[in-house]
Design goal:
Blueprint (H helix, E strand, L loop, with lengths): L5 E4 L2 E4 L10 H5 L2 E9 L2 E2 L2 H14 L8 H13 L6 E8 L16 E8 L5 H5 L2 E7 L14 H12 L4 E6 L2 E5 L3 E6 L2 E4 L10 H13 L3 E3 L4 H5 L3 E6 L3 E8 L2 E2 L7 H25 L1
Parallel strand pairs: 7-8, 7-14, 11-12
Antiparallel strand pairs: 1-2, 1-6, 3-4, 3-5, 5-6, 8-9, 10-11, 10-13, 13-14, 14-15
The structure holds N-(5'-phosphopyridoxyl)-D-alanine.
């Protein structure tokens, strides 16, 4: 957060410190809303079409009317980026069902609240890439609609705090014996040189990096197998990785205090990380192309 941030709220651009939402907003009262986090490299939103599609999907699953068409959303994101001096940013978008007298059932005739802001993209500590991060395991105690990118994030918040309390960067969660994901990232298992990916079902959020990891694996000739992954397969993996808009792809080298493989980032991570950096650079360069 910086003092000079301009945010968008219900059709107006205004200073962050002045933006106000009524207390009866259902986002505040019920966590009744959806959100997106879009990384921006060289002033170009990275994989915007996929982020927009997921936003539309999340709204549809919660039966919140989409307040804008595709061109409107893109125009809003571009306007926010243009208002800030940083080449690399991340755009946060939130849509709630709107403001209404408190009642659990959907109110009729309300207008969704639309909020968006852009912040400088935090630079990942070089050590996290070169040495990897520590992760703890936890039971997945969230609800059964984790595919919706909802602002109701209490399960994720409590899980992340448990990781912080344990001195770890993230937690990886299991539903019974089955791998799901982390508190705010997807999780990848490397065995025998290939990547194992948990299925895109209601138990995980399909990260925009999910499709990207699949594409990068295909381009790099790394096998990418989608299937339920067991706890035993995670505990005995050759390599582990996590991915998100703000963490890109990171190696997990310590799991519950035990080294993963030889305890250093492995060859599959290194290839995918390099390919990820090339994808970012190509996207950023497309701004120059569009301008000429
Ligand atoms: N979180 N799973 C969960 C539960 C997430 O919250 C996220 C992203 C992901 C990865 O999705 P993507 O590749 O689209 O970033 C997976 C964002 C960054 C957040 O809540 O801040």
């Amino acid at each position: 957060m910086t003092d000079d941030q301009t945010v968008y709220l219900n059709g107006e651009f205004q200073p962050l410190a002045e933006a106000r939402v009524p207390v009866l907003d259902r986002g505040f009262i019920f966590g009744d809303g959806v959100y997106e986090v879009v990384p921006v490299y060289g002033r170009v939103p990275f994989r915007w079409a996929q982020h927009h599609a997921r936003l539309v999907r999340s709204l549809g699953k919660l039966r919140i009317d989409d307040p804008m068409d595709a061109a409107g959303w893109r125009g809003l994101v571009d306007a926010l980026i243009a208002r800030h001096p940083w080449d690399d940013q991340f755009v946060y978008i939130q849509v709630t069902r709107g403001v209404a007298k408190r009642d659990h059932a959907f109110p009729k005739g309300v207008t969704p609240t639309v909020f968006a802001m852009s912040s400088p993209l935090p630079v990942l500590p070089a050590e996290q890439v070169s040495k990897g991060v520590a992760v703890i395991t936890l039971p997945d105690e969230r609800w059964l609609h984790c595919d919706i990118k909802s602002t109701s994030l209490l399960g994720n918040v409590l899980a992340r705090q448990a990781a912080v309390d344990a001195g770890a960067a993230e937690c990886v969660m299991f539903r019974d014996d089955r791998l799901t994901e982390c508190s705010s990232s997807n999780f990848w298992v490397v065995r025998d040189g290939g990547v194992l990916a948990p299925p895109k079902d209601n138990l995980i959020l399909e990260g925009i990096r999910y499709g990207l990891m699949q594409e990068l694996c295909e381009a790099e000739g790394v096998a990418f197998e989608v299937r339920p992954v067991t706890r035993a397969e995670v505990l005995s993996a050759d390599e582990l990785m996590l991915s998100s808009a703000t963490k890109e792809v990171l190696p997990v080298t310590l799991l519950d205090g035990h080294p993963v493989g030889d305890g250093t980032p492995g060859p599959v991570f290194r290839r995918l990380h390099a390919a990820y950096q090339r994808a970012k650079a190509a996207s950023a360069a497309s701004a120059g192309l569009a301008a000429h």
